């Protein structure tokens, strides 16, 4: 059995997937690299097969009809033979030194029979053209060098949260919790992180800058103009997060606080993109989103709507919307996203 399965979802990734794959090969025989070709029409399939032939004990090429990023991750979970599971997008890469420390730590869990459900590490925003690279660290909130539970964490800051890039899950826990991401939907990485958290009991934080998150391509799904075009998918994921994890059933106060915090960030992104688009149709969708939350869970609605950011996003009129957008632009600079 492999120590770690890494799935690389690929759709028309011929121009950058090699760099991603090469960054993962130093893991050697401890790692299984699952390249999922999600119905690509370029040379992605050919490149995946090339690596599978060259490294038959490490790399597997999986070919499927186009189902979107979520279905590629689902395929990875179905095929994974590793004890732990990681998603690395095909335009991202990992830092070699940090990677080897991660593998050593995972190997220790297995040797010492520690059933850790989630390992957290840092990630770096590799933003094109940016002089300063923002690093998402967690040393101010998570204990280091020990296995801990939700009760041991401190409060996350605004704009600080767990992304797909931060987490490695225990593979069997992912299967047991029934995680299945929707097909043909962007932004499911939020669901991938959020949905399993209530099943996580043992956590370990390794303070290394492991994942390199490339951001800056014009056609990238997280580019603001692209997100506005796909706003219905962002709203869909936002609603699924609310539907799939019922916060009133979360027994740990600190876990509930974190889940609310993460949900607030996703809801703010949905609302601000609807404002940024400037269309009457999308301003109507913003009202509909708040109405949906209120009808589904009135307590949750009050926590989101009347928190500091919720109030800022609902200032009346054009002037109010300008203030909301200004706050959003400031947060972009502080956090480094989009």
List the topology elements.
Elements: E1 4-10, H1 17-24, E2 31-38, H2 44-54, E3 59-64, H3 69-79, E4 84-87, E5 93-94, H4 96-111, E6 118-127, E7 135-136, E8 147-148, E9 167-170, H5 171-176, H6 189-194, E10 203-215, H7 224-229, H8 231-244, H9 253-277, H10 280-296, H11 298-305, H12 308-312, H13 317-335
Parallel strand pairs: 1-2, 1-4, 2-3, 6-10
Antiparallel strand pairs: 4-9, 5-10, 6-7, 6-9, 8-10
Helix pairs in contact: 8-9, 9-10, 10-11
Can I get a quick summary?
By secondary structure, this protein is an alpha/beta fold. It is built from 13 helices and ten strands.
Beta-strand content estimate: 15-25%
CATH superfamily annotation of the largest domain: Spore Coat Polysaccharide Biosynthesis Protein SpsA, Chain A
> What is the number of beta strands?
10
Which range best describes the helical content: under 10%, 10-25%, 25-40%, 40-55%, 55-70% or over 70%? 40-55%
Number of domains: 2
Helical stretch tally:
13
**What is the ordering of alpha helices and beta strands?**
EHEHEHEEHEEEEHHEHHHHHHH
Which CATH architecture of the largest domain would you pick? Alpha-Beta Complex
Low-confidence stretches: 334-338
Whole-Å distance between the termini?
Answer: 38 Å
Q: What is the radius of gyration? A: 20 Å
Shape type: globular
Structural class: alpha/beta
Largest sheet: 10 strands, mixed
């Amino acid at each position: 059995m492999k120590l770690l399965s890494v799935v690389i979802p690929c759709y028309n990734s011929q121009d950058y997937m090699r760099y991603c794959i090469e960054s993962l090969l130093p893991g050697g025989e401890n790692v299984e690299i699952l390249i999922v070709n999600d119905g690509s029409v370029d040379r992605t399939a050919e490149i995946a097969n090339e690596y599978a032939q060259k490294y038959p004990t490490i790399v597997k090429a999986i070919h499927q009809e186009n189902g979107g990023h979520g279905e590629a991750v689902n395929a990875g979970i179905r095929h994974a033979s590793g004890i732990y599971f990681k998603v690395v997008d095909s335009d991202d890469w990992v830092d070699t030194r940090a990677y080897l420390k991660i593998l050593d730590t995972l190997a220790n869990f297995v040797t010492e029979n520690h059933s850790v459900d989630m390992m957290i590490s840092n990630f770096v925003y590799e933003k094109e053209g940016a002089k300063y690279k923002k690093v998402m660290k967690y040393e101010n909130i998570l204990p280091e060098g020990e296995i801990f539970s939700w009760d041991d964490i401190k409060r996350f800051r605004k704009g600080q949260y767990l992304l797909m890039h931060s987490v490695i899950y225990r593979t069997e826990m992912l299967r047991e919790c029934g995680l299945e991401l929707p097909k043909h939907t962007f932004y499911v990485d939020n669901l991938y992180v959020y949905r399993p958290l209530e099943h996580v009991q043992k956590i370990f934080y390794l303070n290394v800058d492991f994942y390199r998150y490339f951001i800056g391509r014009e056609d990238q799904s997280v580019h603001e103009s692209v997100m506005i075009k796909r706003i219905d998918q962002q709203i869909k994921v936002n609603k699924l997060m609310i539907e799939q994890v019922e916060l009133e059933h979360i027994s740990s106060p600190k876990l509930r606080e974190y889940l609310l915090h993460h949900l607030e960030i996703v809801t703010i992104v949905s609302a601000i993109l609807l404002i940024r688009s400037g269309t009457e149709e999308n301003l109507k969708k913003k009202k509909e989103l708040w109405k949906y939350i209120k009808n589904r869970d009135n307590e949750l609605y009050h926590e989101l709507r009347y928190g500091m950011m919720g109030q800022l996003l609902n200032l009346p009129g054009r002037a109010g919307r300008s203030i909301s957008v200004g706050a959003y632009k400031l947060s972009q600079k502080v956090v480094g996203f989009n």
